[in-house]
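Appendix B, Record 12. Input sequence as logged:
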Amino acid sequence: MNATTKRPVDRWFASYSGDHQNDTNQLIHIFAVPAILWTVVALLWCIPVFGTWVKSGAWAAMAMFGAWLFYFKLSPQLGFGMLAIFVSMAWLTRWLEAALGLQNLFWLALAVFVIAWVAQFIGHKIEGKKPSFLTDLTYLLIGPAWVLSKLYRKLGWRY
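Logged structural output:
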Protein backbone atom coordinates (compact mmCIF):
# COMPACT_ATOMS: atom_id res chain seq x y z
CA MET A 1 0.00 0.00 0.00
CA ASN A 2 1.32 3.43 -0.79
CA ALA A 3 0.89 6.48 1.44
CA THR A 4 -2.30 7.60 -0.31
CA THR A 5 -4.08 4.24 0.06
CA LYS A 6 -3.15 3.43 3.65
CA ARG A 7 -5.99 2.54 5.95
CA PRO A 8 -6.81 5.20 8.56
CA VAL A 9 -5.46 2.92 11.30
CA ASP A 10 -2.10 2.75 9.50
CA ARG A 11 -1.95 6.54 9.21
CA TRP A 12 -2.78 6.98 12.91
CA PHE A 13 -0.14 4.43 13.95
CA ALA A 14 2.51 5.89 11.62
CA SER A 15 1.96 9.33 13.10
CA TYR A 16 1.87 8.04 16.68
CA SER A 17 5.00 5.96 16.10
CA GLY A 18 6.81 9.07 14.93
CA ASP A 19 6.51 10.47 18.45
CA HIS A 20 7.58 7.18 20.02
CA GLN A 21 10.92 6.13 18.50
CA ASN A 22 12.98 5.82 21.67
CA ASP A 23 13.10 2.26 23.07
CA THR A 24 12.81 3.45 26.68
CA ASN A 25 9.81 5.62 25.86
CA GLN A 26 8.17 2.71 24.04
CA LEU A 27 8.78 0.41 27.01
CA ILE A 28 7.28 2.97 29.38
CA HIS A 29 4.25 3.26 27.10
CA ILE A 30 3.74 -0.52 26.98
CA PHE A 31 3.11 -0.43 30.74
CA ALA A 32 1.80 3.09 31.34
CA VAL A 33 -0.80 3.24 28.54
CA PRO A 34 -2.74 0.14 29.70
CA ALA A 35 -2.42 1.37 33.29
CA ILE A 36 -3.90 4.73 32.33
CA LEU A 37 -6.67 3.03 30.37
CA TRP A 38 -7.54 0.93 33.42
CA THR A 39 -7.52 3.99 35.67
CA VAL A 40 -9.97 5.79 33.40
CA VAL A 41 -12.24 2.75 33.52
CA ALA A 42 -11.88 2.52 37.31
CA LEU A 43 -12.42 6.24 37.92
CA LEU A 44 -15.53 6.25 35.74
CA TRP A 45 -16.61 3.08 37.56
CA CYS A 46 -16.61 5.01 40.82
CA ILE A 47 -19.10 7.64 39.65
CA PRO A 48 -22.45 6.65 41.16
CA VAL A 49 -25.62 6.44 39.12
CA PHE A 50 -28.24 7.85 41.45
CA GLY A 51 -31.86 6.80 41.19
CA THR A 52 -31.16 3.41 39.62
CA TRP A 53 -30.33 -0.07 40.83
CA VAL A 54 -26.89 0.30 39.21
CA LYS A 55 -24.59 1.75 41.84
CA SER A 56 -21.25 1.51 40.04
CA GLY A 57 -19.80 0.72 36.66
CA ALA A 58 -22.48 2.20 34.40
CA TRP A 59 -20.43 5.23 33.30
CA ALA A 60 -17.41 3.03 32.69
CA ALA A 61 -19.50 0.60 30.62
CA MET A 62 -20.84 3.42 28.45
CA ALA A 63 -17.35 4.87 27.92
CA MET A 64 -15.91 1.45 27.08
CA PHE A 65 -18.70 0.82 24.60
CA GLY A 66 -18.11 4.18 22.90
CA ALA A 67 -14.37 3.58 22.72
CA TRP A 68 -14.96 0.05 21.46
CA LEU A 69 -17.08 1.43 18.59
CA PHE A 70 -14.17 3.71 17.64
CA TYR A 71 -11.68 0.79 17.71
CA PHE A 72 -13.98 -1.57 15.80
CA LYS A 73 -14.51 1.03 13.08
CA LEU A 74 -10.76 1.63 12.90
CA SER A 75 -10.03 -2.10 12.59
CA PRO A 76 -12.35 -5.01 13.45
CA GLN A 77 -9.35 -7.10 14.53
CA LEU A 78 -8.21 -4.39 16.95
CA GLY A 79 -11.81 -3.87 17.99
CA PHE A 80 -12.13 -7.48 19.13
CA GLY A 81 -8.81 -7.25 20.97
CA MET A 82 -9.89 -4.05 22.71
CA LEU A 83 -13.21 -5.68 23.60
CA ALA A 84 -11.29 -8.46 25.37
CA ILE A 85 -9.20 -5.83 27.16
CA PHE A 86 -12.27 -3.85 28.21
CA VAL A 87 -14.03 -6.97 29.52
CA SER A 88 -10.89 -7.93 31.45
CA MET A 89 -10.58 -4.43 32.88
CA ALA A 90 -14.24 -4.42 33.90
CA TRP A 91 -13.82 -7.78 35.67
CA LEU A 92 -10.66 -6.57 37.41
CA THR A 93 -12.36 -3.35 38.47
CA ARG A 94 -15.43 -5.18 39.76
CA TRP A 95 -13.20 -7.58 41.69
CA LEU A 96 -11.19 -4.68 43.18
CA GLU A 97 -14.41 -2.91 44.11
CA ALA A 98 -15.60 -6.02 45.96
CA ALA A 99 -12.22 -6.52 47.65
CA LEU A 100 -11.39 -2.91 48.53
CA GLY A 101 -14.66 -1.02 48.44
CA LEU A 102 -15.55 1.78 46.07
CA GLN A 103 -13.72 4.53 47.95
CA ASN A 104 -10.45 2.59 48.09
CA LEU A 105 -10.84 1.64 44.44
CA PHE A 106 -11.08 5.35 43.67
CA TRP A 107 -7.88 6.18 45.59
CA LEU A 108 -6.00 3.25 44.04
CA ALA A 109 -7.05 4.28 40.54
CA LEU A 110 -6.12 7.91 41.21
CA ALA A 111 -2.66 6.91 42.49
CA VAL A 112 -2.01 4.63 39.49
CA PHE A 113 -3.27 7.39 37.16
CA VAL A 114 -0.78 9.92 38.56
CA ILE A 115 2.14 7.48 38.57
CA ALA A 116 1.44 6.29 35.01
CA TRP A 117 1.14 9.84 33.67
CA VAL A 118 4.37 10.87 35.38
CA ALA A 119 6.01 7.86 33.72
CA GLN A 120 4.56 8.90 30.34
CA PHE A 121 5.96 12.41 30.64
CA ILE A 122 9.35 11.05 31.72
CA GLY A 123 9.28 8.85 28.60
CA HIS A 124 8.54 11.84 26.42
CA LYS A 125 11.29 13.86 28.12
CA ILE A 126 13.70 11.02 27.25
CA GLU A 127 12.24 10.93 23.72
CA GLY A 128 12.59 14.68 23.32
CA LYS A 129 9.13 14.97 21.77
CA LYS A 130 5.82 16.11 23.17
CA PRO A 131 3.02 13.59 23.65
CA SER A 132 0.90 13.04 20.54
CA PHE A 133 -2.36 13.91 22.30
CA LEU A 134 -1.18 17.50 22.66
CA THR A 135 -1.71 17.86 18.90
CA ASP A 136 -4.93 15.82 18.66
CA LEU A 137 -6.93 14.37 21.56
CA THR A 138 -7.79 11.34 19.40
CA TYR A 139 -4.32 10.06 20.22
CA LEU A 140 -5.60 9.33 23.74
CA LEU A 141 -7.63 6.57 22.05
CA ILE A 142 -4.88 5.63 19.59
CA GLY A 143 -2.32 4.88 22.32
CA PRO A 144 -4.02 1.73 23.67
CA ALA A 145 -4.63 0.39 20.15
CA TRP A 146 -0.99 1.13 19.24
CA VAL A 147 0.20 -0.89 22.23
CA LEU A 148 -2.18 -3.71 21.27
CA SER A 149 -0.93 -3.59 17.67
CA LYS A 150 2.62 -4.15 18.93
CA LEU A 151 1.39 -7.34 20.62
CA TYR A 152 -0.45 -8.38 17.45
CA ARG A 153 2.73 -7.92 15.39
CA LYS A 154 4.74 -9.99 17.93
CA LEU A 155 2.16 -12.77 17.64
CA GLY A 156 2.12 -12.54 13.84
CA TRP A 157 -1.52 -11.38 13.80
CA ARG A 158 -3.04 -8.93 11.35
CA TYR A 159 -4.71 -5.81 12.57
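The longest helix spans residues 102-127.
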